[in-house]
Specification:
single chain; alpha+beta; N-terminal domain of MutM-like DNA repair proteins; Helicase, Ruva Protein, domain 3; 2 domains; 4-stranded antiparallel beta sheet; 8 helices; 10 strands; H2TH_FPG
Length: 289
Amino acid sequence: MPELPEVEAIAHFLREHAVGLGIARIDVSQISVLKTFDPPIDALRERAVSDVKRRGKYLALVCSRPGDTEIFLVFHLARAGWLRWSDALSAAAPKPGRGPIALRIHLSGGSGLDLTEAGTKKNLAVWVTRDLAALHQIERLGPDALEVTESELGGLLKGSSARLKTFLTDQTVLAGIGNAYSDEILHVAKLSPFAQANTLSDEAAQNLHASIYAVLSDAVTRCVGESVARLKGEKRSGLRVHARTGLPCPECGAPVREVAYADRSFQYCAQCQTGGKVLADRRMSRLLK
């Protein structure tokens, strides 16, 4: 799933490539991705992309026309969605309901982009709105993970009884962190994924804040400027523990361990994060407290 660093990098890419171009046509090949009907998506035609905004993991194309109010095309790439840019986009419309392309945006000059989604679970979502802040999905977001202050984070921690893994990935608490970067942040902070948020000491809370900023800002630095096609590889190359089960921890050399639940998993280092205590895998037994 694209998280804050990749989404910020996509926003940067689109600001460089799409801003100033007109919207000539939009093809919707998977109608289920559209979550709004007013304004209609055709209202974006003959407008120009004037800016690109990011809110957590959400991207919004600001679509403008002289003498008219702005309209925002908002999208969330979800777990398996992605954006594909082309300097010479095919003029043919993608076949409805077939293939990975959910929506195609034709821009002036022949360039454009496809929103795609792999797999059978279709969660990619698109909204068209005149009021970005009032869109429920945006309105419910917590503070941006790269902008939250140390005192704000401390207050959020004290008000939550959730485990840190859940706390970090709850978009209504902090916007932008997902499964991969929460593993990385907790590893850098040397905190257990199962530690309870409101039990952290002030020192641990300060360390967590520093780790959030360090991990995310480093990833943004690595990602911004890369082509969209290279972002997934860039993300994988910078991971220390996530998706590295069995490999040596880069800090202590102990094997990276995994806890799996439902159709997901997370990784951690028992030596660095849990005092050597191995957290039980849900596939085999109940989680250890």
